[in-house]
């Protein structure tokens, strides 16, 4: 990684300095418990108040963070994690745009407040979209972006005197602008014959509901004051030896020692090292394989890092254990390779979305979704259209599900959204995303955006810079974005490693005419390939389908039409996957909520499962196809074991 970063600066230094961007400060390791670290989750009921004042700024004018929120006026109970939109009966809250306020008291263990050698950190997994955080009325953090974590070191505040609890206040604003990711616009309607004074709406160019709130866990965790701040691991394979390159960043002291130890799944030490940077060699390494490619897929080693530091108070130790999968990823003119073998993505696009909780993290839903992915025989998904919760990525590592990790760069279509202000923010978001997800073996490719107006003139410079920056941050993974532009007009595809194309033949174009799909799809693939000679993924295709609607001969919105459309796509995919098409991802795994519009019958219904995760007919069709594809993926001469083709969940 060091080499990567050095390389990054060599290539991009002048460019980045030019637009005033510094690489992010500090790491963002997932907060794991260890012998030196504790964590305390703050999930549950928080106090909540939406600021319905005309300018939405009453909370700041009256400084609601200074005293308990209930003293400011009427407040509600609000579950965390959850979106706030769908839990109540108040229609105004469902579509609220502006500042909302969350608050809760946390009781701290005595040692945390008295031991000055303990560092106490407040971590917010996701606050959509802009967040300001106070602890006991003192401002501790601000963050832009709804899908990535941020932290504040609150040690000084909680260790400044006798204290057994602290009050955490978080103000969150879901307003989107042309420079946010995703972008949006506020439109004031000034015709007083039609709208009341001050009336406005928020418009977006993306097709999912702009749920807001505290969507993931909020927690406190501790480390010693000298601590392991970041770990970066990249892996390679030399014959049958696995190579694990590591780089560790320590904060708090310059006088420390680092020991690293790599353990196999049985807990046996297979390699050891010392110092902040090095390479571990693992003879006869077990590689990390996607779950349908190997009898023992998703093999994870554990990298145990031990820091020993000399401080004024004596020696302190910090321990952190990182799961490590040894694997390689490579792209050729016509293949996507994992561990040197061609990999075909047969999977889904998802959303973080469900009834009531909106985008709130939910373990039962997550496990259900993974069981459905297995039932389907899906080996991959794209995190359309934003980074998902860290726990999702961890399960992909453990189950061997391959991920295309996508940024919230969805709906970049306005000219202003290609400005330097937007670009700079997008570069920072990629830094946050790579920093968070760089160590997941399941992540095999970064997607910087979905369906931008990549035919607009500024798109060339914008995506050249963005993709180069992402590659410089992580030279070990290919980079893409997802296009729906015409192959002749697209100015950004020259910079990608894999071409990801969305198309909706016989849905948005020539609707009702499934007979044109084969010709149009073949033309699509051939045009892109002839122009670029890069592997192609059909990154979206699908049809709106209301479960229980049946029409034969098939009509749009019926289950039969969805199946029929998919079958037409599959004919061409089966031809082209023998050449250069390396994947197919259905739109969408499940129905999901969108803004209201005449095109949407309570959300987008292109799911092969309903929003409640029940299968439509197309799910059975895809299931048959995906398991067939899995069985074609011969590895080490043997087909995927037939017992996999049941309802069995992932096992270890
Ligand atoms: C797309 C978008 C996706 C939409 C989908 C649709 O191209 O990438 O966000 O939901 O089409 O159903 O219109």
Automatic annotation (TrEMBL):
Residues 329-630 form the Glycoside hydrolase family 2 catalytic domain. Its EC number is 3.2.1.31. The chain crosses the membrane at residues 6-30. It is an enzyme of class 3 (hydrolase). Inhibited by L-aspartic acid. It comes from the Eukaryota. Keywords: Glycoprotein, Glycosidase, Hydrolase, Lysosome, Membrane, Signal, Transmembrane, Transmembrane helix. GO terms for molecular function: beta-glucuronidase activity; carbohydrate binding; protein domain specific binding; signaling receptor binding. The keyword Plastid does not apply. InterPro entries: Beta-gal/glucu_dom_sf (IPR036156), Galactose-bd-like_sf (IPR008979), GH (IPR017853), Glyco_hydro_2 (IPR006101), Glyco_hydro_2_AS (IPR023232), Glyco_hydro_2_cat (IPR006103), Glyco_hydro_2_CS (IPR023230), Glyco_hydro_2_N (IPR006104). It is found in: Lysosome. Residues 40-224 form the Glycosyl hydrolases family 2 sugar binding domain. GO terms for biological process: carbohydrate metabolic process; glucuronoside catabolic process. GO terms for cellular component: extracellular space; lysosome. Residues 226-327 form the Glycoside hydrolase family 2 immunoglobulin-like beta-sandwich domain. It catalyses: a beta-D-glucuronoside + H2O = D-glucuronate + an alcohol. NCBIfam families: PRK10150.1. Homotetramer. Plays an important role in the degradation of dermatan and keratan sulfates. Belongs to the glycosyl hydrolase 2 family. This is Beta-glucuronidase. It comes from Balaenoptera musculus (Blue whale). The gene is GUSB.
């Amino acid at each position: 990684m060091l080499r990567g970063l050095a390389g990054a600066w060599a290539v991009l230094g002048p460019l980045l300095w030019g637009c005033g961007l510094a690489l992010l400060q500090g790491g963002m390791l997932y907060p794991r418990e260890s012998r030196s670290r504790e964590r305390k989750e703050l999930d549950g009921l928080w106090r909540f108040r939406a600021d319905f004042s005309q300018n939405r700024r009453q909370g700041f004018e009256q400084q609601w963070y200074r005293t308990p929120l209930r003293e400011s006026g009427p407040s509600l109970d609000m579950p965390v994690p959850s979106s706030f939109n769908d839990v109540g009966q108040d229609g105004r809250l469902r579509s609220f745009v502006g500042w909302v306020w969350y608050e809760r008291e946390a009781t701290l263990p005595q040692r945390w407040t008295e031991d000055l050698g303990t560092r106490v950190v407040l971590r917010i997994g996701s606050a959509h979209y802009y967040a300001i955080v106070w602890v006991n009325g003192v401002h501790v953090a601000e963050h832009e972006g709804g899908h990535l974590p941020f932290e504040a070191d609150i040690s000084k505040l909680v260790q400044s005197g006798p204290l057994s609890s602290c009050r955490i206040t978080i103000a969150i604003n879901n307003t989107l602008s042309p420079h946010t990711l995703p972008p949006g616009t506020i439109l004031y309607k000034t015709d007083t014959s039609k709208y009341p004074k001050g009336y406005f709406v928020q418009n977006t160019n993306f097709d999912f509901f702009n749920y807001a709130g505290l969507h993931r866990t909020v927690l406190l965790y501790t480390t010693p004051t000298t601590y392991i701040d970041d770990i970066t691991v990249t892996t390679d394979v030399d014959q049958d030896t696995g190579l694990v390159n590591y780089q560790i960043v320590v904060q708090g002291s310059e006088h420390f020692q680092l020991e690293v130890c790599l353990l196999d799944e049985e807990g046996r030490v297979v390699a050891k090292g010392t110092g902040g940077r090095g390479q571990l060699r693992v003879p006869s390494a077990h590689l990390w394989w996607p779950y349908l490619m190997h009898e023992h897929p998703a093999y994870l080693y554990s990298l145990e890092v031990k820091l020993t530091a000399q401080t004024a108070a004596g020696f302190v130790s910090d321990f952190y254990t990182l799961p490590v999968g040894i694997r390689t990823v490579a792209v050729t003119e016509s293949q996507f390779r994992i561990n040197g073998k061609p990999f075909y993505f047969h999977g889904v696009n998802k959303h973080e979305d469900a009834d009531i909780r909106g985008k709130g993290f939910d373990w039962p839903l997550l496990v259900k979704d993974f069981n459905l992915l297995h039932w389907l025989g899906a080996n991959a998904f794209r995190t359309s259209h934003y980074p998902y919760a860290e726990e999702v990525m961890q399960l992909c590592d453990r189950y061997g599900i391959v991920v295309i990790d996508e940024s919230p760069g969805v709906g970049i279509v306005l000219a202003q959204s290609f400005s330097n202000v937007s670009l700079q923010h997008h570069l920072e978001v990629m830094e946050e995303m790579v920093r968070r997800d760089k160590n997941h073996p399941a992540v095999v490719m970064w997607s910087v955006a979905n369906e931008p107006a990549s035919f607009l003139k500024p798109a060339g410079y914008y995506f050249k810079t963005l993709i180069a920056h992402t590659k410089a941050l992580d030279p070990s993974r290919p980079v893409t974005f997802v296009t729906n532009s015409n192959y002749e007009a697209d100015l950004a595809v020259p910079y990608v490693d894999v071409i990801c194309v969305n198309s909706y033949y016989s849905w948005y174009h020539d609707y009702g005419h499934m007979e044109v799909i084969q010709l149009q799809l073949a033309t699509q693939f051939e045009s892109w390939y002839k122009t670029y000679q890069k592997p192609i993924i059909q990154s979206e295709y699908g049809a709106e389908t209301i479960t229980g609607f049946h029409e034969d001969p098939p009509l749009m919105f019926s289950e039969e039409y969805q199946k029929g459309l998919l079958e037409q796509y599959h004919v061409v995919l089966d031809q082209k996957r023998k050449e250069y098409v390396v994947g197919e991802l259905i739109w969408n795994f499940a129905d999901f909520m969108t803004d209201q519009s005449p095109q949407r019958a309570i959300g987008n219904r292109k799911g092969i499962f309903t929003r409640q995760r029940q299968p439509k007919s197309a799910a059975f069709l895809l299931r048959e196809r995906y398991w067939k594809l899995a069985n074609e993926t011969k590895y080490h001469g043997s087909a995927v074991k037939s017992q996999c083709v049941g309802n069995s969940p992932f096992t270890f």
